[in-house]
């Protein structure tokens, strides 16, 4: 019988109505009471590491979660993390970079409705997550609405529907129905023999979404306060370069100061290719770092993690452009 550790962080799944709306208040042990049938195929223990709305998630908490898993890594066969849906994709990406080459599953799940409500999706999601945590696979995964998504490829696309998460630019790993796991893509989750743990991270990363007419001077504010910048550009990727809206000189100032600049796209599917258009090729000469088909969440967190390893731009670029668990494909 597999031994599983469930780590609770709060979120909608653990929420109840308060004076100012839903607020996390249900303990980890109580969550487990709703899915007592899982005890027939695994031994499961709980730990309440946080009890927050995931809107309040921050990098320091990612480190706290990761370090608790590292501390207990050899005591359990798998891990389940209950989490709010709003920043779940950021946390799954963060753990994917901090906990690499795993030989056991770390599974993140949550719910769109509190587990105490009659029409909750929390019971099914938690049962599915615990079921998948008993699989002989390694890696970080999001399990939601019967789907298993690679930790670096999850994005929340819907605010209310039960099928809140999608796997972006990558196949689903597996599907879970009535307790059966049917694999769709298994080669990426082969077990590794030597886990690699590294929780160093820099939170000084800014995400800038371009809009038509954006003023270049906004980059002066970023230059004095951040170590890294993610620019969400348009379409296949590119930076405005005409007239008084030319962002390229300001971006070069950032790079010259040692600030890492990554360019991704606002378009969710199919990724970016800065080599395709003039607006992209001019940006590459600045030089910026392309994010290819990474999710927004993975790009942000990976830059944070890369800056936690080094402040030297060439090294940061090397780390960022080294694939981790298929987080991007050229």
From TrEMBL:
GO terms for biological process: amino acid metabolic process. Residues 3-185 form the L-asparaginase N-terminal domain. Keywords: Hydrolase. It catalyses: L-asparagine + H2O = L-aspartate + NH4(+). Its EC number is 3.5.1.1. InterPro entries: AsnA_fam, Asp/glu_Ase-like_sf, Asparaginase/glutaminase-like, Asparaginase/glutaminase_AS1, Asparaginase/glutaminase_AS2, Asparaginase_C, L-asparaginase_C, L-asparaginase_I. The keyword Hydrolase applies. The keyword Hydrolase applies. GO terms for molecular function: asparaginase activity. It comes from the Bacteria. The active site is at residues 12, 85. Substrate binds at residues 54, 85-86. Residues 204-320 form the Asparaginase/glutaminase C-terminal domain. Gene3D superfamilies: 3.40.50.40, L-asparaginase, N-terminal domain. PANTHER family: 60 KDA LYSOPHOSPHOLIPASE, L-ASPARAGINASE. Belongs to the asparaginase 1 family. This is asparaginase. It comes from Caloramator quimbayensis.
